[in-house]
Amino acid sequence: MEEKGTTIGFSRARILRVAGIAVPWLALYHDVLRRLIDDWRADENYSHGFLIPFVSAYAVWTGRDLLRRTPCEPRLFLGSCLMAIAVLMLLAGILGAELSLTRLSLVLSLAALALYFGGMAWLRRLIFPIGLFLLAIPIPNIIFNQITLPLQLIASDYATRVIKLFGIPALREGNVIELAQLKLQVVEACSGIRSLVSLTTLAVVYTYFTEVKWWRRLVIVAAVVPIAIIANAARVTGAGITAHHWGASAAEGFLHQFSGWLVFIVAILLLLFIARLLNLIERAFEQRRHGAAAINRLDPK
Question: Which of 8, 137, 156, 202 is 20 to 30 A removed from 46 (C-alpha atoms)?
């Protein structure tokens, strides 16, 4: 019999109960998982979704000792209620043909299982591995379009300004940049949404494993937005300059793909630079605070 407040154990009764829940859970969500994996395979914006389960599992593995010491206080009623809500969301998503709702239901069901088997303390420990799956869920089209269009306009506007600085005549009309010999259209695929999604995921994972203070985590994750915008605008600028001098074909194909990877690597380096800059700023504040404290000790007045 399981006692409330004990740490994790692997008794036969617990294993059987986990299996008794896992099998119907897989039966309930197998189609949701299948469709989600299909989207990861088809949509390059979310190809990083294949890595999320492994990163989540690694997060659980690295925190296994702390999790093992966490009191196991199953909340059967609350866990069951949360699972019931997840199932209702699943049914509503299936009946309404709303994939996003079924996928949010999947994540909520994982939280319900953590609450059911381990209680609130366990749920707090597992909030990151579970919540990380939210970054693997494709954004609904109605929200996706509201994000991509402004990004397209911003990238085309910034790129036009920089292209002009190189002495190249350029005129922007919406998301189209008119050059002397051709028109360069900043389409949805070039909006920078892919970099924004991937960089956000990378920043969240990076800060979880390397940062302790919440304010530092928030600053680094928030920096993803301007970095992604600047990086994509730089890529469009490069494409415009290349197309002006060597033709549209030179800005397409391998060079276009290579510039995307190059800009993404630069964006990652900028993200790491911000983390390093925060270290320098925090160290300077610490030295200043210690210096002020030393002066106060020498001169109490």
Answer: 156
